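ok so for the tutorial part 2 we go from a plain amino acid sequence to predicted structure tokens. step 1 is just haveing the sequence, like this:
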Amino acid sequence: MPTDPFSELAQTLARNPARRVDLARAALWLAADFRPDMTPDPWLAQLDALADLARPTVLRAWSDEARVRALNQFLFDEQGFKGNREQYEDPRNSLLPDVLERRVGIPISLSLVYLEVAGRLGLPAEGIGFPGHFLVRYRGRQEDQMIDAFRGTVLDEPQLRGLLREALGEAAVLRRAELQPIRSRDFLVRLVSNLKRHYAQARELDSALQCCERLIQLLPDEPGEVRDRGLLYEALECWDAARADLRHFLEVCPDDPSAAKIRERLETLDGRESTLH
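step 2 — the prediction. this is what the tokens look like for a chain of 277 residues:
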């Protein structure tokens, strides 16, 4: 049975992936895994305060283009939100309280701030799970605008094509599929996946393991996440748990491209005794 709000939410989304949820609150529940003293309400109040500060200038603007320009100036110039280019892999870039405190993040976390402030102002903004670089789309009455919250700019179509080629290679073609609004579950999966990768790179393996647990809650039918959890258990010398996960992965995905290496790892795990964590 679920014992915390994120678990309950994840189970709901696992049953109904198309359901829309309060992403800021969900991101704060996730952050509580790594900041145990954190409670959501003060951080939600910060988002409310940002919207209140932006409201007079943004809503006074007479066109969609002017409103986007005013909101961009408020968030990126006046409030100082920006992409953390120097320490992109810092896990704090994916934790909403840290992003609000430090004013730096990665594309998806900065886009979340943008979406939350825009939503509080009644503006028609939506998240776009663009390959390799999360974006925000403002649905204008005459023309849409694509906002890169990491760089604090509005992107035109040639810039979008260039961003796509950076992510997928020179042969990539911009299609409608890359510009679809992201569902709540997919947003959270992408946020947690980034966090897992960055914790793993920082060798904070217990935290990376917690991210795996969250991803398995969101994607209970995704064996790749069970495999990754098994590999983390191995790195943490939890041999029994590692064996169980890796064997489960091979049972479900015997022909996966990674299966041969997983079989080799299982052979090395035989006879080892687990370390308690």
